[in-house]
Write a structure and sequence with these properties.
Blueprint (H helix, E strand, L loop, with lengths): L13 E4 L2 E4 L2 H5 L2 H10 L7 H4 L5 H4 L2 H4 L14 E8 L5 H9 L3 E9 L2 H14 L6 E6 L12 E7 L7 H14 E14 L4 H12 L13 H11 L1 H4 L3 E5 L9 E2 L2 E2 L3 H7 L7 H4 L2 E6 L4
Parallel strand pairs: 2-5, 3-4, 3-6, 4-5, 6-7
Antiparallel strand pairs: 1-2, 7-11, 8-11, 9-10
Helix pairs in contact: 8-10
């Protein structure tokens, strides 16, 4: 198993302010392009700012799905009434996934660790926790830091979750992060990385890549894509197989031939065409938009 670059970091190295743990070098992190981009995106991400604007009588206050929708993919396979001691979420955002798991799947935990680089999203997570009280019995540790910085002890987490995050992270950083996840996951623990990797063989991504190469300014929000075997190799190299021997890497059930937007411009009929795709079993890995990886016991 690879040696973690951050294994000596703990929450004692952070400062707690207004319910959020910040690294002591937060000013340095705050000056990075990645941090500034995601703070800006976080202000309006998924329309989640509506929770701050809603009146007390707003339907959003009574039905959280009006704010978040219902996540699909691997989350549909998540068991009901599961109870764990600790959960770590990578890229927790405003709390969309834990809110769903708590309310719809009755998932319970004693400690919830949520890490995200966007302070604006984390402040909205605290607002959603206040409004909807997900994981009501848990202690909350909300951490504003870059993705590979896990301030947790070895073998301390029962369940690691992440949703649509890894495609935003540079490859070297993902590799460090996977080593860290493997380090903190308890032996026999569970993980769910839903729709976390983009598929390198997907025609839509290939078109996007061509456009990005022709663009004078690179798009650094969506980064490298991977094949299923490359994802398997990264998980193995991280030591994940030692902690969680049985897991599945599978293509998502969302398929795409055409990008639905290019540089913010909608492509006519692309969404309709992509939604109509019903690939054969031999073509699913080619046309799948992305990949998920998750512990096999979810099945």
């Amino acid at each position: 198993m690879s040696q973690s670059v951050n294994s000596k970091i703990s929450l004692n190295d952070f400062q707690l302010r207004d319910g959020i743990y910040f690294p002591k070098d937060y000013e340095q992190l705050n000056s990075t392009e990645q941090k500034q981009r995601w703070d800006k995106i976080g202000k309006t991400y998924y329309g989640s700012q509506k929770i701050e604007q809603a009146e007390e009588t707003s339907p959003i206050k009574q039905d959280y799905t009006l704010l978040t929708g219902r996540p699909g993919g691997t989350w549909n396979k998540f068991p009901i009434n599961k109870s764990v001691d600790s959960i770590l979420e990578i890229g927790c955002g405003y709390g969309r996934i834990p809110l769903f798991l708590s309310k719809e799947k009755n998932l319970k935990c004693q400690k919830y660790y949520g890490i995200d680089i966007s302070e604006s999203l984390l402040r909205r997570l605290l607002k959603c926790k206040q409004e909807y009280d997900f994981f009501p019995e848990a202690e909350f540790y909300i951490i504003c830091a870059s993705a590979e910085l896990l301030a947790l002890e070895d073998n301390s987490v029962d369940l690691v979750i992440s949703n649509c995050v890894f495609m935003h992270i540079p490859e070297a950083q993902i590799r460090n992060l996977l080593v860290e996840i493997s380090r903190v996951l308890k032996p026999g623990g569970t993980f769910v990385f839903n729709h976390s990797f983009h598929n390198k063989s997907c025609p839509s991504h290939k078109i996007h890549n061509l456009v990005r190469r022709l663009s004078p300014k690179q798009n650094s929000v969506y980064l490298k894509q991977y094949s299923g075997s490359e994802i398997e190799a990264m998980l193995t190299a991280s030591g994940m197989k030692e902690k969680c021997p049985q897991y599945t890497v599978e293509p998502t059930q969302e398929y795409a031939i055409l990008p639905e937007t290019i540089k913010g411009v909608k492509i006519p009929f692309a969404k309709l065409i992509n939604r109509s795709l019903k690939p054969s079993s031999t073509m699913k890995e080619t046309l799948a938009y992305g990949y998920s990886a998750y512990s096999s016991q979810l099945n």
